[in-house]
Specification:
- The chain is of the alpha+beta class and about 220 residues long.
- It is built from seven helices and nine strands, in the order ββαβαβαααβββββαα.
- It has a four-stranded antiparallel sheet with strand order 3-5-8-9.
Length: about 220
């Protein structure tokens, strides 16, 4: 039975199994000991999703548009570790996933999973809850070989929306999340030298152009 606190499921997600809490099990989730472990992605599904152009959430074929729910730092680097989804699957996940919709949620400790043979996502992820999520809509992406796996580089965005706690995020909320994460990116760039810092500065400027519009100030009338 579906958890009554969740929004109605999109048609494709209604076909997914339901776990003991009443949550639909995304297609990418690995099953450990006969149970879905939402902390772990099935590595085989990752490569299958890319090869066959399948939705990361429901596992069905994608159309022309590709939806990437990403964190603010990923809008700067434009690299992520998860394949795209249908827009309706991604939006439902943003509004209902406990981690994406609740800024107070923290990432689980994966130590026990690594010991059991699990894998961390490729790249060097920033292990925090950013508090806001960007839904990046595009028609293309490219794969990138990283030291510890495969990353994706998202294409030019045709549309970008920002979310927090299941609602539209304000510009102030997005800016606060970006400012809290930038020191981590700049610390990494400084290790690679001046050109890396200059590149990052250009990437930050490009990402800021995608932020929500500032609120319109009320104009006093006489």
């Amino acid at each position: 039975m579906i958890n009554p606190d969740l929004e109605p499921l999109p048609a494709r997600l209604r076909k997914r199994p339901i776990d003991s809490r009443g949550f639909p099990v995304p297609w990418f989730v690995a099953w450990v000991g006969g149970r879905p472990d939402f902390r772990v992605m099935d590595r085989r599904k990752f490569h299958q999703a890319i090869k066959e152009r399948l939705c990361w959430c429901c596992g069905e074929p994608l159309g022309r548009w590709l939806a990437f729910p990403i964190g603010p730092m990923c809008t700067i680097t434009r690299t992520i570790s998860e394949p795209p989804s249908h827009r309706e699957c991604a939006e439902w996940s943003i509004r209902n996933c406990p981690f994406l919709s609740n800024p107070q949620m923290v990432r689980a400790d994966h130590t026990d999973l690594i010991a059991a043979g699990g894998h961390e996502p490729a790249g060097h992820g920033i292990m925090r809850n950013a508090g806001v999520t960007c839904l990046w809509i595009t028609r293309e992406y490219e794969t990138l070989n990283a030291r510890n796996g495969t990353l994706l580089t998202v294409g030019r965005p045709d549309e970008v929306t920002w979310w927090r706690e299941g609602r539209a995020a304000t510009r102030e909320e997005v800016e606060a999340s970006i400012e809290s994460g930038l020191p981590i990116l700049f610390a990494a760039a400084r290790q690679d030298g001046r050109f890396a810092i200059e590149l990052l500065e250009r990437q930050v400027a490009a990402a800021r152009a995608l932020l929500p519009a500032p609120p319109v100030e009320a104009v006093a009338t006489s």
